[in-house]
């Protein structure tokens, strides 16, 4: 299975590799990578440039080939990113929302040293018309930086359900600042019902002298309600779990797939061992919900349980971004050892 999302990781050697105990466990003493996890629409945005200018494009749906086509013509009067050199190197990127993952992304070539780039390129999506009509097109313009520090220049969002499909002409549209809904992930993606419990070191019974005592985190995924449905036949969903920063195979757990149900009941418990109490402030439990298909899985939403400090073992990480609700849930678990803490948390775009 390949998932329509990407992970960016780099190695650091704070901890040594040690074997994990049990098939449903991950040794937090073997932390080996830091993951960027699910990439959002605005990933890589390092700029603080005000959006300005316009973009010319046209939309069409090829019924014969079942293909959605975005004809990107040109842009005018874009913001200047490098003021000293008076230059921008713009390109256009498109996403189909709510799928903000990599398989939903298309982009044009980069035009160097211009605020009036001409593209005349067609970005294509193989997608059924009925599925297309329940999505939105996010078209954004970016400055391409050689070091990957790309800057956001403006965007437009199109509700494809209300689009006039008889309009196939090229039209000009003003570029707008990034939408608050997309930045803050306030779009409704469903709600996860779950319980978590921390079992501290020393409360698990006798331990071999060669194995220092360690704790466990138990995660009981009960059910999810009101999932997004990306196709008319419904949603075939499952839940993935990682304990970040560990993105190794032994950290990865998942539930079974529940077919054609926007309110799936999983009733699945995951246990991670190797936890020391001090790990709880640096670790983050990431639970993501996916729509299962034969060739690729589509990201529906997720939650991150942690302290939301932005740091893990002294390193700045973007995934340590828990909401107030998620932080409160994690803190309650930390302060109530050996007790199940139950919560109802909204899924977000991560």
Name the overall outline: globular
CATH architectural grouping of the largest domain? Sandwich
Structural class: mainly beta
Main sheet: strands, sense, barrel: 4 strands, antiparallel
Would you tell me which CATH topology of the largest domain applies?
A: Immunoglobulin-like
E-strand count: 20
Radius of gyration: 22 Å
CATH superfamily of the largest domain: C2 domain
Could you give the order of the helices and strands? EEEEEEEHEEEHEEEEEEEEEHE
Portion in strands: 35-45%
Count of folded domains = 2
Write out key terms for the chains shown.
single chain, 350 residues, mainly beta, Immunoglobulin-like, 2 domains, four-stranded antiparallel sheet, 3 helices, 6% helix, exocytosis, neurexin family protein binding, C2_domain_sf
What would you say this structure looks like, in words?
- With 350 residues, the chain is mainly beta.
- It is built from 3 helices and 20 strands.
- Helices cover 6% and strands 38% of the residues.
- The strands form 6 sheets. Strands 7-4-3-10 form a 4-stranded antiparallel beta sheet, with no helix packed on it.
- It has 2 domains: 46-180, C2 domain (Immunoglobulin-like), CATH 2.60.40; 188-345, Sandwich (Immunoglobulin-like), CATH 2.60.40.150.
- GO terms for molecular function: neurexin family protein binding.
- This is Synaptotagmin-like protein 2.
- It is found in: Cell membrane.
- Keywords: Cell membrane, Exocytosis, Membrane, Repeat.
